[in-house]
Amino acid sequence: MDRPSSVLPVAGLADLTTESRMIATPWSRMVRGIGLGQYPIGYDPAAARRIRHTFDLLAAKVPPSNSYTLFARRLADLILNVADPAVDLSRTDTGAAVGSIVDAVRAEENPYHRVTAGSILMDAFAKLGLDRTLLVNEWMDFPAEILATTDQIRPDRIEDENQGRHGDYERLSACTAVFLALGQLGLADRLVTGERDHVRESLELLDRIPAPFFRGRGGSMLLSVLFLLGYDSHVFGGPRDHLKEVLDYLDRADELNLPPAFPQPMTEAFGKIYPLLTMLNAVAASGRAEYLTDGKDRLAEAKELLGRIDPVERTHMGLYYLVALHNLGRLSAEVPDLDAFVEDVLGPWDHADPGANFFRNGIAYPYMIETAMLTGRLDLITGRGLDRLVHSYPGLDRTDLDRANRPYPFSYTLNMLGEIGAADRLYTPSDTYGGRSAVAWVVDHLSDGGREEGSRLYMLDHALVSYALRLRDRERAETEVFRNFRFRLAS
């Protein structure tokens, strides 16, 4: 496998930062835009050129009226200038760049995407160590503006195969992102000290997410962030125990009969194990082991469900399972032979077709890479498999659904190949792409203006911003709020 001479980000689970343990999987980063820029490596001119080149390609395909991609390009450019030791940015220069980014955020008409973009900007500020008075001053209070925008997000606006099952899922996810961003800027007290208790209101949103799958998956990240920020008493210190209630709601999945729909066929067990594993990570963040046996043995349930999903689905869920067990301090007890487990999860590496479909197979390979990296088993990632992945994207022309969703798996791949130092493969011309690179071909094959891809295009924006943030100084690996948090059950 092609790798740079520099040391890889981690050599095993013990190397993970708190942020990577709490926001461990590509889904949160690429789809929701939280936890971007993990594993900083310091400034790399070649990587910076790749990022800017990709945004140049996007600019030729997507008009400036697409404010989200415009926001991402402007933010990535600021990040790269801050990270580049050869660039001496004055406060005036930085302020002007921030002003143009804020303008692009405000131009985004969709309130959910506006909150996501604003939260990413604040997160980047914190990770780069920029002066927050550029966002909070006598002319504007950008954090307050983005927090207030969450009120504009209406339920059931996600247009996908789960129409009617989401409820306030998007608003809950937006609250998670903005709460985390404010916490990293040192402004978490704003959530509870004003006229409104935003933390309490966000927990009430859980009741308005009808499908157990989405209540568990979305709720787990909200709960984890609240524990991170020290709002444990809001979760289970009053008349309600919101952590227990979500777990109990997952137990009612068969009774409620609102199973999630997926773009490609998945087993019934997959729809149950996914929210359970994310909630197990929330239990780990809570520091309270009693939730593992409240009502049932939830680790036994997770193991049983893991045995019922098929091998390709295990490539998705294996990572969630291992990280949750690690954070709970139960990894060695539940997985006594870690090497054998990882080898089993990566079993499809040499034969599954990543171009068979965008979701089930398309993101399986990035999940396998991440699992191998986080467990120190990159020896299982062969160059032949990486070639298969990089050359797979023309296969997604077989259906309109796969074609419109091509940025989904591609963003995962760009993110993961960047993390293992193999992103150059996506920028190398090949016969598969008519002498062009995979990046150039994928961007050129976007629909006119990126209209058919819709919000899937924003996942590529997230991957590029994350790549840019990784070029910051290694000493800025985590913000203070993460450095001060401990997974108490793992100690």
How would you describe what is shown here?
The chain has 491 residues and is mostly helical. The chain is built from 26 helices and no strands. Helix 5 runs antiparallel to helix 6 (111-128). Mean pLDDT is 95; it is low at 1-6.
Question: What is the element layout, followed by pairings?
Answer:
Elements: H1 18-22, H2 26-31, H3 45-61, H4 67-83, H5 91-107, H6 111-128, H7 142-149, H8 169-184, H9 190-193, H10 198-205, H11 212-229, H12 232-236, H13 242-251, H14 253-256, H15 268-286, H16 298-308, H17 311-328, H18 331-334, H19 338-345, H20 364-374, H21 383-390, H22 400-404, H23 407-419, H24 438-444, H25 456-469, H26 480-483
State the share of residues found in helices, binned by percent: 55-70%
**Could you say which structural class the secondary elements and strand pairing correspond to?**
mainly alpha
Total number of beta strands? 0
Strand content: under 5%
The residue-averaged pLDDT reads 95
Q: Please give the oligomerization state of what you see.
A: single chain
Order of helices and strands: HHHHHHHHHHHHHHHHHHHHHHHHHH
In whole angstroms, how far apart are the ends? Answer: 35 Å
From the spread of the alpha carbons, the general shape counts as globular
Integer-rounded radius of gyration: 21 Å
Largest sheet: none
State the helix count: 26
- Low-confidence residue ranges: 1-6
